Every structure is written in C-alpha cells, then in structure tokens.
Amino acid sequence: MRKIVLIGGGTGLSTFARVLKSFPVDLTLVVAITDDGGSSGILREEMKIPPPGDIRNNIIALANNEEILTKVFSHRFSTDAMKKHSLGNIIIAGLTEMYGSFPDAVIAASKLLNIKGKVLPVADALVRLIGELDDGSKIEGESEVARYGKKIKRLTLDRKVQALPEVLREIEMADTLIVGPGSLFTSVVPNFLVSGVSEAFSRSPGKKVYICNIMTQPKESEGFDLKKHVDTVESYIGTTFDRVFWTEVGGVEKTVLERYRRAGAVPVRNDLPDDTRVTVIRGATTELIIDGREKLVVRHSRESIVSILRELEILEEILL
Hints:
The protein is an alpha/beta fold. Helix content is about 40%, strand content about 20%.
C-alpha cells in the first residue's frame, strides 16, 4: 500500500485529504501548530495548548462518514458568551486536559471519528511565528505574518521545538510527500521551522511534490507567481521538489474571480513554462462554505486531485 504524507495546515490539506481517504493508501497528515486566531487562538492562550483548529479540520476531513459525531465536531457556537468557539476545538482541548497530552488528545479525537488515516500535529509545543521584515524589524504571531507576508525576509519560531518522533518516522518512510496546498507563510512553511522536519524531508527517499495554491492571498502572497511559491518553500525545506503542480482557473465563474480580485487575490501565474517538473492541472472549482456567512471559494476539484494522483502513478498502482 502506497504510503503518502501530506504536509500543511488548514483548508488546502483537508480538501486533498477528503479525496485521498477514498483510495486504499496509507495516509498521514502533518499539521502546523502556529495558528493564533479565532477559537484556536483563544484556547491556546487560555489553556496553554497547541491550537486545535487545523487539527480539527483535518480530523473531520478523514472521518469515516458524515454522521452525528462529524456534525458535532463541526458545530460553531453563535453566542458571544462562547466566544464563537468550535465545539470540536473545545472537545480536543478537553481531551488534552483529560490525557495531559495534546498528541494523545488528537489520537482520542481521531478514534471518536473513526478516521481513515492519521492526523499528527508537527510538534507538541506552544510556539509563535516570528517574521523578519526587509527593514530588519520583526513581527510576532501568525495573524501578523499573514498581514505582512510579501514583506517578510525570513520566518522563524520564537523558540526551538522538536518535531514529534512519529512525524519524522512517517516522513522518512513515505513513498510520496505532498506539500500544500495551503497558506504559504502560515500553513506550509511553519512545519519546516520545527527541528528535524526539513532534515527528515531531505533524507526521505519518497517522491517530493508541491501543490501550488490556485489563488494568491491578500497581503500574505500578493504578487507571488508560481516560481516565487516554489522558491520560497524550497528555501525552507532545504531541497528541491521532484514534481510541481499548477492548476488553471478556466472553469471558475468570472463573478467569483472578480470578488477575489477586489479582495486583493488573483490566480497564481505559471511563470515556469519550461520547468520540466511542472504539470498543469485543469479542474479548479468553487465550493459553497458557511462560516458566519455563505460564500463561494475557489478549490481544487475532486477531478483535479484525481488527475494529480494519476500523474504521480498512485492510482495506477492501486488499480494494479
């Protein structure tokens, strides 16, 4: 069975996980722990635990079905008294208190939802992102990094932390390592700032793959073309990718793209047409999400993800 490790953070990772779980693969998700906004940010400060939000999203993505427990983990309180918390975040926080360990809480939550695969926080630590700007000044926290992204010269953590041993084992044993899609500076890169991760990634004999975001992100990756995305990630992982996937937006409604443009986001331009590592994928789509308000967002379609699996010869191996 092909062993696949996905490395990232929130929505992008969970989108791929939902498709991959339907195939007979050994799947592990390695998730960043630097989120400091919303419900996760409140819980990390009040309980001194790693933020549970991205972990929760990916556990839900790998759930065996969409029955009551999945709906429970997805529920978000509407009252100010509950500070807009996600019930799933509170459950993971409570399990952390019960077990005395965030990784053990993640395992327990994964068992509750009977997930297909594994979700691992990259480390068991309370850390903050530090961004050094072009002028030498520094900013602290994931939320601030997202605002200053394109001006950031270098990212670090506020202290040295070691990756979970299981994370390093999974990376070193993987047949395929997929990085992204996900927020460049706040979901993808933070994993490689944790001690041991970039070294394990470089050592791994597995095929190293980068899935580029479909759209740039306001402030964070504004003006970044494909090359800038690839170069940025490679500068932190310490090695080069074997394959790079770029997705065109031909099928996305113009009204949706215009709304993104007004917000400061545009499709990532493929400025590496002669790079033999780059494969163009067709199949971007829109998905209706409800998070305080309804809106259409651009996502990789199931068809585009399946195309990537075919390009990586993962599906062919399964069919054989």
